[in-house]
Amino acid sequence: MAEKFHSFGRMLYGGDYNPEQWLDHPEILKKDIEMMKEAQINVVSLGIFSWSAIEPEEGRYRFDWMEERINTLHENGISVFLATPSGSRPRWMAEKYPEIRRTDPFGRRGLYGGRHNHCYTSPVYRREVRRINMELARRFGDHPGVIAWHISNEYGGECYCPLCQAEFRGWLKKKYGTIEELNRRWYTSFWSHEYNNFDQVEAPSPMGDSCVNGLNLDWKRFVTDRTADFARWEIQALRDAGSEKPATVNMMYYFDGLNYHKFADVVDFISWDSYPSWHNGPEYATAMDTAMYHDLMRSIQKKPFFLMESCPSATNWQPVSKLKRPGMLEAASLQAVAHGADSVQYFQIRQGRGCSEKFHGAVIDHYGGNDTRVFREVKRTGADLQLLSDLAGSDVRARTAVVYDWESRWAMEDAQGPRNVGLHHKDTVQKSYIALRKAGFDVDVIDMEQPLDDYQVLAVPMAYMFRAGFEEKLRAYVARGGILFMTYWSGIADETDLCFLGGTPHGLMDVLGLRHEEIDALYDGEKNSAVPVKGNPLGLTRSYSCENLCDLVKVTDAQVLFTYGEDFYAGEPAFTCHSWGEGKAYYICGDMEQAFYDDVYAAVMEQSGILPAIPGLRIPEGVEVSTRESDTAVYVFIQNFGREEAVLDLPGDLELIFGESREKLPVYGTMVLAGKKQSQEI
Ligand code: GAL
How many domains does the chain have? Predict the structure, then answer.
């Protein structure tokens, strides 16, 4: 069943719930249920950090309170995502089995404390986790109130203990076969770093090797594989104890430590924890940053994802714990839904009294009443989700995509190169993303391993490392009519970070009609500009500024659309286009300002006749348009993240199913329109 899971058939609404902190307050536990029902909460994540509450001493279980809670929640129409408790282990366990505590890159084993800091290799920890997971699955796996498994919590981090080091060596041996091959792929003749055998390999460390980029990269890949293997191990324990309910791991915002794509086949559905810093600059910028990550999460499995955590008011860990202004919670929650989420969940239902999260926002605060601003807004969002419940299971079927590849990013940022004070990779990816969204398109955010068949327009920004076969995929994509936007600093190195010989972007010079020759790095604050070539086919007439990186290319047969305005390369190509096969390949040479991307994408879309969800709609500043589709209907979400009321001129054939007016959208307002499904063939 596992891979086939698609939807729970309804929108879920709820959050992390820690009744184990309130077991001596029955009146509070009762109140929790009342208030959850009042807010139309229908799911909680239970047991995330409850290991010591269910097993206070080795082998002595206390599941009574958990059973009582699950039963009571179920009787009240509230389902449970039951967590495996491995995110934080009991003190007795860490004391008895020191090997489960993580070792740092200096070889120091941690003391007991914190959370998320166990060794993923330790056979003892694996045994203990399997045991407790099986106990949970046997007791609650068939409970009608338990609808899914919440595996651990926010996996992350690295362990450098001897067990992990040995595992790493085995992993390398499997990958490279011989030490000679490893030496070749890692280029270890540099500084006399050749290995004589696999036993000599150590994980990268500030007190050891850190200059072998291939080693650094493979270590990161290994950490991802180890963690995914641990997740698999956890889920297998549940399956072996007879539970087939779907399982997820909650992921983090642009988390650098794990390539989340590698979890696509491990979990049944994707979920993530979103904590944007709202009101720190224009809300639209925060909305776009969050939107891109929603889309990345959705694109991992290309089906609905779940917003596993978000904050109903202010967090307590951001540098400034700003409140959400009235309406922001609803807008942010519905934005997740607009991008394909089938849930809105919070951290947390009830605010704790002590320890480090006691001031973190919650549905129910220390005061404990329902007459708070936050609770009213939570309630309102709950009502919204009820109204939109039929949308559960509908997908986003984007025809445009941007590539954000973890492994390429790891390699690019580890390589000392043109700018060691900031390459701005994410910002560069976001510029294409934002331009496409401003033009009204839904966008997938994919990695280099994912298929390109669904797309008409594809942005490949700063794709430094070409993972095996990527250039072939891009060639096939352009050949069959795809429009490609590639930027500077792409196709430079192969999978083990060996630079390509014979010219770059590797394997695409004929497709792009040019070759990268040199790259100029600009000091912070330094600018160049891109000047339009008169009569360019996109009809663009204004100049744009660029910064950070300026690629100097040698054009063979691409058409030059813009040239640089300054420096010794003034007049050299800054933006080019080449028709190849049935498609077109654009090359953006410099780190252009956002307006360049906005204008270029809008012009290209228009010229190519590629239509957004609502053709002809002028999207006001700050407004976002997103689409979900079922087999029978299209749902268009229009949200105002601007600072002024937005006025819209919508075509008449879409029915307003959510929101007050088709013409006006207040600040933080959302409207949802439904229409008959229209398919657009590639
Ligand atoms: C998440 C974590 C939660 C809670 C929350 C606070 O990253 O999963 O357990 O700590 O942050 O914002």
Answer: 3
From the CB of 150, is ligand 1 less than 6 Å away?
no
Does ligand 1 come within 6 angstroms of the Cβ of 154? yes
* Best residue for ligand 1 mutational test, from 16, 154, 311, 360 (most atoms within 8 Å of Cβ): 154
Task: Establish whether 27 is a catalytic residue.
Answer: no
309 is known as an active-site residue? yes
Q: What is the mean pLDDT of the segment spanning 8-27?
A: 98
Read off the pLDDT of each residue in 359-375 and give the average, rounded to a whole number.
Answer: 98
Q: How far apart are CA 221 and CA 14, in angstroms?
A: 34
User: pLDDT of 46-59, one tens digit each?
Assistant: 999 999 999 999 99
> Whole-model pTM?
0.97
pLDDT > 70 in the chain, percent? 99
Query: Where in the sequence is the domain holding 429, given as residue range(s)?
Result: 400-608
How many CB atoms are closer than 10 A to CB 64? Answer: 10
The radius of gyration of the chain from alpha carbons, rounded to an integer in Å, stands at 26
Catalytic residue among 20, 55, 128, 154: 154
Residue with CA at minimum distance from ligand 1 atom 4: 347
Work out the pLDDT band at 641, boundaries 50, 70, 90. Answer: very high
According to the model, what pLDDT value does residue 651 have?
84
Q: Are residues 360 and 417 in the same domain?
A: no
- Calculated CA dihedral for residues 366, 372, 375, 380, nearest 10 degrees: 180
Largest CA distance in the chain: 79
- Check if 153 has its Cβ closer than 6 Å to any atom of ligand 1: yes
**Residue 535 shares a structural domain with residue 646:** no
